[in-house]
Amino acid sequence: MLMNINVKTGTAEKESAEMLAFYVYEDAVIIGGALASCNSELNNVIAEIIKKKEFVGKLNKSVALFTYGKIPANRIMLVGLGKKKDITPDKVRQAAGTTASVARDMGVSEVVAVLDSIEMPSSALGEWTQAYGEGCLLAGYNFVRYKKVPQEEHKELKAMTLLFAGKEDISPARNAVKHAQIIAESVCFARDLINTPAQDKTPTALADIAKKIAKSLGFQCKALSTPELKKLGMGGLLGVSQGSNQPPQFIVLEYNARAKNQDTVVLVGKGITFDSGGICLKQSKDMDLMKTDMSGGAAVIGAFKAISQMELPLHVVGLIPCSENMPSGTAIKPGDVIKFYSGKTAEVANTDAEGRLILADALGYAEKYKPTAVIDLATLTGSCVVALGTVVSGMMGNNEELKKLVKAAGEKSWERVWELPLWEEYQEQIKSDIADIKNIGGPHAGAITAACFLSKFTEKYPWVHLDIAGTAWCEKNAPYTPKGAAGIGVRLLVQLLRDWTRFPK
Question: Structure pTM?
């Protein structure tokens, strides 16, 4: 359950609260505004700790002070924003996450945050307030479904009040908080799916969850099972799943299906609910993290959860091929040839390059919607992690305008992407002697050759591929992303669709 966020006007030094939170720039010369009033009431103690550099406003640094009854609030927290010239909405998001997590760990249940101390530009008040709300809510995420937490260790920040001095700020701030809550809930929903062990999120279980969400929020959902997949000739999805006793599912979501004269955007998410590598078995080290190989699919479901609540005026389709990739006597073998929905064939040179096999069927199926644009998300290659690390997702595609839109949405949501080349020379690496293509391209440029493979199924529409292998999982706590599943892609997709205008034909 996410915390409640309220918006109100008031005077900070008169607020009765467990904790008042103020924001300080690293290069601030003087204390101003409401903080100056509180400083005066507290006998200049705030100015002293800043002067003596006991607290410096570096990003995500914080200090908490007791007020000893000199003002109605019990404590004051100062949180750093870094240098003012470098401030961005994401740094606001980070500072909000720091506020929420530090207050929670101190056992505080409610915080009043003085948002005027951030000195938001009036033109960006909505964007910055949304970022602040997202940071608070995302930082409070905690996956404890399988863990018994003793009552004495249970700490929860239950409410956050955003305080503004001016009444004119209240309406846009409330609207921004509403969007922040929708987006954060959707991200946390995706995180829950990803963090859930594979035993409890089989392809069938994932399809059932998608159906339940669709029914509750009013968009369409169907799941195609083995008999239907056979009729469609989806050899990629069927081939990958044949080593598991869990049947595959092809989840098809559709939002605003009756929309007229609207662009159709198709979102495709990889849904491997567990990836052992198949016959080409992975090393046992870190194989437990292969429950996350459906992070792309989780992002698509999470995005649908958000856009349906926002009632965006677009026709959006979600395609999530779901399977386990397991070794067994019936598993697909290296050297086998499979035939896809599109009619193309591929030699399976490595069974651990399975994600592209199931995505190929989904990308081919996307053609039936005559899409304006298609974006796929997949934890596809370790090579992308080697190339770009865990800070940014890899982007490749066949349409410059669509790449620009995705990159802009990534910058705005701070789920950033970086383009890798998808040049014709790389296509040579996936040529097969016995089939149209093969599913690996050798030891070099693995993220690119994986995208080359997908590009063979996207020739009839604008397409962007996002390799989120490095960004889908956090190995340590960050300001608004606790260790574990990041829920990456949800905020980027929602931002992309919120900003969408008619796509040039």
Answer: 0.96
